[in-house]
Amino acid sequence: MTRVKREFRAVTAPRVVLTTIVGLLVAYSPSVHAQMAPKTQWAFPADRDLTQMEKSLPTGWKIVRAAQTFKIVGPDQVWLIHENRINAPPGQAASARRKWLDRQARWKKLHMALDAPVRPEFRFRYEPRWSPAKLRSVRQRNAAILKQIRAIVAKINSRGKRGADAYRRQTESLREKLVPLPYNTQRHALYVDKTVGVEDGFTYVFPGDAAARVFKVWQKVLHDLNPLRLENR
User: Looking only at Cα atoms, what is the longest distance across the chain?
Assistant: First the structure.
């Protein structure tokens, strides 16, 4: 190696190392990361109704936001047991059934026969708030479709099983055209997309005390949203 090359390396090497260190410090700077992070499309702080919903959630519950969706997530861990509960007995028999299922679920949990636990969540889709004109138009179209369905039912109601089959075929395509109305908040139109950890006709949630807490929060959320849907009528 020539003397000139050795001197050049001796001069430039410290500069390269210094430049690399400065670059790493800048790259891992929190302020730079904050500037580089993608901005969310969610206008949550500006929506009076959703802000109030978030404030009214019980301790431990939180809202997780994403593009075009958000979910309300609870602190409990629950296990889901899938069974047909549509014809479950009412009253004391239902209470006894729950106790029996709790014992079964506890046994299965101890023997690792249950699926992994999940956190309860209520997931919503959202889009910009519907205008009064759009709401009026959709309501009118839905009303016209329901009128057609009622007319078909009246025509074939007395035809027995054959009539029921004809009703199902004729109304199936009409029902697919019905447009569900959203919960119209101050700035958003909300749709319930999915619930996890809420008991229904096909799902039992263990343990029972956590299931009761989840159901209570879900009823509270629906109670807060229902007046918003009534505004659409």
Answer: 107
Cβ neighbours around 47 below 10 Å, total: 19
Which DSSP state fits 230? H
Residue type, 218: W
Q: pLDDT tens, 115-154?
A: 778 899 999 999 999 998 999 999 999 999 999 988 887 7
Structure tokens at 213: 């807490």
Burial environment of residue 142 by CB neighbours within 10 A (0 to 12, 13 to 18, 19 or more): middle
DSSP-derived secondary structure letter, 89: P
Predicted model pTM: 0.66
Listing DSSP states for 138-181 in one string gives: HHHHHHHHHHHHHHHHHHHTTSHHHHHHHHHHHHHHHHHT--PP
User: Which amino acid appears at position 13 of this protein?
Assistant: A
How many degrees, rounded to 5, is the angle at CA 232 between CA 228 and CA 233? 120
